Amino acid sequence: MEPTRAERLIEAAGTDAVVISNGTEPFLDSAFWYLTGLDSGTFEGSFAVVSRERGLHVIVSKLEEEAAKRSRGEVTVYSTGRERDDAVKKAIGSAGRIGIPFDSTVHSMFAYISKMGEGAEISNISPALGEVRSVKDREEISRIEAACAISSKVASEIPGMLREKISEEEAAARMDSRMRELGASGNAFETIAAFGSASAEPHHRPTGYRLKKGDVALFDFGAKRNMYCSDLTRTVFLGDPDPRLLRAYEVVLEAQRAGIEAIKDGVQAKEPDAAARDVIEASEFRGMFIHSFGHGIGMDVHEPISLSPRSENVLKAGNVVSAEPGVYISGVGGIRIEDTVLVTENGCRRLTDFDRSVTIIR
């Protein structure tokens, strides 16, 4: 029988207990949903506590009682602050070492957990949590595949959405609406729609700029479905493209293929980046690939795995990562092609599947 998520985490953390606190917006922690298996409810002011001696305990307010019944682990419902404190102390038990994720815990909660732990040593489990969450189980992969199917379908409809004078804001809104129609619970992140020279800004926010003939149009977007994310970028052209950008598209596509071919179990995560970067650096676009090749994807659209020149990660079967090389020419435009990719024992598999060939809308 495979270890549970809670068992994997406590083992990786090397502590007697782990406490995941779910605060209030914007301090909600996706690790709470990861451990509990819940996929609805807000669960503000809730805790997921994993103890070597007591297993997984889910501590929630009366407001979340019904939704909490579907969670993994033993559920305790509190109505007052004293009941909450008693439940947290009981779940922690006699733990002498308590792990919390420093990356997602505010100082006030650190102080609270220290008080509830009655003098226990508090340590940072963010690296261990990231390592455990990075290897997806079958249920997680299935959910990511569902999110990827939605974004892939929307990508296939982009050419039909575009026309002269549509604004970046209008295009992004249509894509967001379409993802909802196809079953997304929300966006994985704010949709990027960048036309013309704005596409040279990797994190451009849509504006009222209107598409015109000869423009490049870059779309970076993702759906969230059953708590899991997809991430996809496609770049298309309205009318005859600038020859420099058409050439850049060819180079970026070649770079993505090289990077994806390097993705497999046991490979240093910096190797796919190097394979893609070598292609771009050998071209006339040297120095114009200004970000990493990829990152981890799961409940959060950016998870700890980094496919970058300085990455110390090693890829493992079950990792889900982005593959997104780009070339950015200031004042002209940018090209980025991105897919969500599952690492397998023998290589990898693209989970987003819209055509990557040059698309010119006439």
Summarize the structure in words.
The protein has 362 residues and is an alpha+beta fold. The protein has two domains: 5-134, Creatinase/prolidase N-terminal domain (Creatine Amidinohydrolase, Chain A, domain 1), CATH 3.40.350.10; 138-361, Creatine Amidinohydrolase (Alpha-Beta Complex). It is 33% helix and 24% strand. The strands form six sheets. The protein has a six-stranded mixed sheet with strand order 4-3-2-1-5-6, with helices on both faces. It is elongated. The mean pLDDT is 96.
Keywords:
Creatine Amidinohydrolase, Chain A, domain 1; four-stranded mixed sheet; 2 domains; six-stranded mixed sheet; alpha+beta; single chain; 20 strands; Creatine Amidinohydrolase; 362 residues
Write the layout of secondary structure elements.
Elements: H1 5-13, E1 17-22, H2 30-36, E2 46-51, E3 55-61, H3 65-68, E4 74-78, H4 81-92, E5 97-100, H5 107-116, E6 121-124, H6 126-134, H7 138-161, H8 168-181, E7 186-187, E8 192-195, E9 216-221, E10 223-225, E11 228-229, E12 232-238, H9 243-261, H10 270-281, E13 294-296, E14 303-307, E15 320-323, E16 326-329, E17 333-336, E18 339-344, E19 347-350, E20 360-361
Parallel strand pairs: 1-5, 3-4, 5-6, 12-20
Antiparallel strand pairs: 1-2, 2-3, 7-10, 8-9, 9-12, 10-11, 13-14, 15-18, 16-17, 18-19
